[in-house]
Amino acid sequence: MSGLRLSRHVAGVLSVLITLAAFPSPAAPPGDLAETLSGRVLLAGARTPVRGAEVTLLDRDGAILDVGETDPKGRFSLDLGVMDDPRQEAVVGLYLEVGVAGRRRLRVQVGNVMTSFGTEVKVGPLLLPAR
Asked: What is the DSSP letter of 82?
């Protein structure tokens, strides 16, 4: 290649690179990133809803990401927006810890109780030990 052709080739490559930098790839399609995690807390045995249970979302290192409380039907919802990358691979490694005064605490890995993944991650009923 002559020097002139090489310069045009390099200029063309640079033009493509500059264009790619100016138009970054689109954001991940909806559904790939989770926004909330929801479920129910039931009393083991009777399987009745537990009202006022504290539900804590923890990362792999035990750092608290969010804390919520169950409603009269035992339902809770936690925010996953604090995560840097709330994709399924990261969410399954999180932990849920559930507690109510006078009862043993329950700690489970999200991946072991997850029933569906989307913008809302759903987990199966969390069964709180009777005592």
From this structure: T
Q: Measuring CA to CA, which residue among 85, 107, 86 is closest to residue 37? A: 86
Q: What angle do CA 52, 36, 32 make, to 5 degrees?
A: 160
The values of phi and psi at residue 22, to 5°, are: -75, -25
Point out which residues pair with 39 in neighbouring strands: 76
The CATH class, in words, for 36-128 is mainly beta
Mean pLDDT over each residue of the chain, to the nearest integer: 81
Contact assessment for residue 91 and residue 121, using Cβ atoms and an 8 Å cutoff: yes
Amino acid letter, residue 38:
S
Q: What is the CA radius of gyration of the chain?
A: 23
Residues 106, 123: Cα–Cα separation, whole Å = 14
Burial class (CB in 10 A: 0-12, 13-18, 19+), 20: exposed
pLDDT digits (tens, 9 = 90+) for 37-75: 999 999 998 899 999 999 999 999 999 999 999 999 999
Main-chain dihedrals φ then ψ at residue 125, nearest 5 degrees: -60, 135
